[in-house]
């Protein structure tokens, strides 16, 4: 089984953790708890083959530091998340995309990437049109998805797409065993690592 290293990026409060937890735990957690960094593992079946995802859920773009640049260097696939209810969060993913290319230092076609609009269930609060974001994704030559972690709309599609991109470019690491689903969290207050199983 192969392992794929993926990082989820975006402004604070756009729903990066909710998106990740919906995939990993199959649940939606309401409320906003600012993330420093969380690392999850999840075994996923994509096109008849099982793979292990190592997903890094990062701090908001406004809190991005040199520590996070380490994850940009080590990650192979990138999920750029913004909130459909916050037009300002689009600017953050544009800035993050620029940082990715600066850190990775090679052409756009070599970087597996997906643009994701979150909170699609909050239609009355929508500030960003599908047409605008699809045009931006087309400009960047990357897939675009609109999701709702609360309703479980389109979440698995995002991660399956990024795996397919990474597979096509040979960006996987062979692993042994059946894989796992877990979490390593870096505590915001203590700055220590707490490893525990979250899904069996």
From TrEMBL:
Its main location: membrane. GO terms for cellular component: plasma membrane. One of its GO terms (molecular function) is GTPase activity. Residues 167-200 are annotated as: Disordered. It is a lipid-anchor. GO terms for biological process: signal transduction. Keywords: GTP-binding, Nucleotide-binding. InterPro entries: P-loop_NTPase (IPR027417), Small_GTP-bd (IPR005225), Small_GTPase (IPR001806), Small_GTPase_Ras-type (IPR020849). It is found in: Cell membrane. This is Ras domain-containing protein. It comes from Rhizoctonia solani.
């Amino acid at each position: 089984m192969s392992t794929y290293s993926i990082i989820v990026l975006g402004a604070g409060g756009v729903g990066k953790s909710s998106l990740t937890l919906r995939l990993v735990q199959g649940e939606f957690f309401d409320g906003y708890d600012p993330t420093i960094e969380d690392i999850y593992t999840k075994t996923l079946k994509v096109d008849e083959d099982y793979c292990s995802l190592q997903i890094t859920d990062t701090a908001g773009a406004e809190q991005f530091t040199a520590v996070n640049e380490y994850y940009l260097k080590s990650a192979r696939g990138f999920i750029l998340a913004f909130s459909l209810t916050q037009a300002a969060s689009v600017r953050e993913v544009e800035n993050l995309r620029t940082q990715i290319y600066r850190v990775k230092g090679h052409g756009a076609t070599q970087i597996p990437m997906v643009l994701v609009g979150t909170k699609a269930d909050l239609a009355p609060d929508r500030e960003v049109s599908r047409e605008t974001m699809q045009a931006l994704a087309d400009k960047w030559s990357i897939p675009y998805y609109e999701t709702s972690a609360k309703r479980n709309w389109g979440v698995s599609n995002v991660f399956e797409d990024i795996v397919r991109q990474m597979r096509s470019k040979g960006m996987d690491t062979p692993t042994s065993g059946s894989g796992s689903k877990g979490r390593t969290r870096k505590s915001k207050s203590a700055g220590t690592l707490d490893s525990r199983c979250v899904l069996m």
